[in-house]
């Protein structure tokens, strides 16, 4: 009798959890999708604003950073580089 009672209660609990999951899981996933879309929109927003400002200045060149000019590490008195050919 105890085993039958346990099985009936277990089946009822599983049925209730399954029914609640069908109701609440879609709402949970929808909220997660909405949050992800908002975060993606916030990440893309600065790039879109930058692209809009670049489109306004069409035909003009904008340079953000000019790297410093590096001097040659080989001194001038070292000589010239000569290509070689392999002799067989």
From TrEMBL:
Ranges that cross the membrane: 6-25
Annotated stretches, region: Disordered: 40-88
Record's compositionally biased regions (Basic and acidic residues): 52-67
Composition bias type Acidic residues, residue spans: 77-88
InterPro entries found in the cross-reference section: DUF4834 (IPR032272)
Biased composition (Low complexity): 40-50
Pfam families documented for this protein: DUF4834 (PF16118)
Keywords: Membrane, Transmembrane, Transmembrane helix
Protein name in UniProt: DUF4834 family protein
Biological classification of the source: Bacteria, Pseudomonadati, Bacteroidota, Sphingobacteriia, Sphingobacteriales
